Amino acid sequence: MKLGVLFSGGKDSCYASYLAKKNGYEIGCLISIISENKESYMFHTPFIEKVSLPAKEMGIPLIIVKTKGEKEHELVDLEDAIKLAIKDYKIEGVVTGAIESVYQATRVQNICNKLKIECFNPLWQKNSEEHWKDLLKNNFKVILVSAAADGLGEEWTRKVIDEKKLDELIRLSEKYKFHLAFEGGEAETFVINCPLFKHEVKI
Length: 203
Known about the structure:
By secondary structure, the chain is α/β, with parallel strands linked by helices.
């Protein structure tokens, strides 16, 4: 089955891509939505303008659609992007990196139902600590590109999360009560290398 991945370049969409390929699916294209609204309910915004860099290293076609990011109306732009992927790349389903956001997952599922294609959420309800450890075990080099939670200062940005930094993240998330996978927007990530890339992305 040929799939399109809703792709931001962050840890979750990159790892969802990795799992899809590992499980024998063909990735026909990546689908990225660039939102003018930094507070978008649906879409990752920090560093999204760099999304072509990991796409190039993956060697997978990238569809970019811009949206004003208005709540609910931005879903029309997402639907248009998925329709374009169906038309140009013959995808039969969509992969997301959703972990806990019911808002995001249900809306993508509704669009897929409407377009009569499958929707895969391989990270859904995955334990956050386990997710991070799997990223490290599978040689994902992840940096933080924004930090917006108590306990996470600017010093965390542009740093690769290794085992030592993950231990510190776990400690801080327990102390300051932020979501370890950043599902509440506490931080945003960008993958600079992983098994899907030909070369490391230079930032």
